[in-house]
Amino acid sequence: MNAHIDLASRLGGAVLPSSAWRRYWLATLCQQQVRFDALAEQLGCDPALTGRVIGLANAAVSPGERKHAAIDAAMLAAIGLPALRQAFAVPALPTGTHAHFDEQQFCSYSLAMACAARVLGDALQLAPAKELYTCALLANIGQLELAMRHRQVYAQRPGQHGSAAKALMLCEESRRFDRHHSALSASLMQHWGMPDMLCNAVRCHAAPPGCGQAGRITELAWLLKLASSFAQLILRNGMGEREPALAAARVLGLDAAHMETLLRHSSAEWSEWREIMEAPTNHALCRPRTRARPAARQVFSEFI
After folding, report:
1. 162 to 168, 171, 194: CA distances (angstroms)
2. Residue 238 gets which letter from DSSP?
3. Treating both helix axes as pointing N-terminal to C-terminal, what angle do 243-251 and 256-277 enclose, rounded to 10 degrees?
4. What is the mean pLDDT of residues 218-235?
5. Domain spanning 103-303: which CATH class is it, in words?
6. Please, which pLDDT band fits residue 86 given cuts at 50, 70 and 90?
7. Among 217, 229, 280, CA closest to 254
8. Model-level pTM?
9. Given a cut of 90, is residue 128 above it in pLDDT?
10. Nearest alpha carbon to residue 123 among 17, 13, 255, 29
11. pLDDT at 10 over 50
12. Where are the alpha helices (DSSP H) in 14-98?
């Protein structure tokens, strides 16, 4: 029997769980009135809070104006510290997630995929790199929703599946819930006001359209698929099957050598960003960890 997901009621709040320490840490940073760019960096590694804050910002955008698709200092300044403190104070829902759903692993995979998407965005110039980062960060957030609402489904960790196993998972989700987690991720992103092009790319990135189908959404879907393959390799220290990544790279016009270089850059960026995911040893210090990213032209100068 299908357990249909009532999006009409869910999306009214669209509040997904995030770690209590991170919500407290961000609220404390707001209290200390840290720079908004530092706050954006701390916030940008948490999928649930990123979606919530983007939704908060887009709710205030006037009709006809361009909506936000990434966390940045200007957007946080427009929201204001009082509203942000209130957003971070919203508790995680009491239902929790399944004991076998590793939320830390989910966040690590999401962040690794986001780092890869930003590196690929810098290299391929298909869309703004910071928007691709957010798009990839949210691309699997439907898993968190399903794990929270239908806990019996997730007895395995996300991000630990090969291509065939992931396809089976999507089919099983569709059978049980009338939609798989990629479609649910896209629906949540649409609710938060993300651009339709990014939402549609997320919807089909697990099985992108064929190579003969041209179009920006198709290209973005393949970019996300490559970022997903990169994330799996990154979390396995570069060990694992290369063919899924190579297949996606070929569609995007990348040869094996170029792909491996982009994978190394993605892994290096992930190594820096994952430090932000760790709980600070002393909340009283409240020293956000900010760092300057090298310009895309410098990072990929070897290909110019």
Report:
1. 10, 14, 28
2. T
3. 110
4. 94
5. mainly alpha
6. confident
7. 229
8. 0.80
9. yes
10. 255
11. no
12. 20-31, 36-43, 47-59, 73-79, 81-89
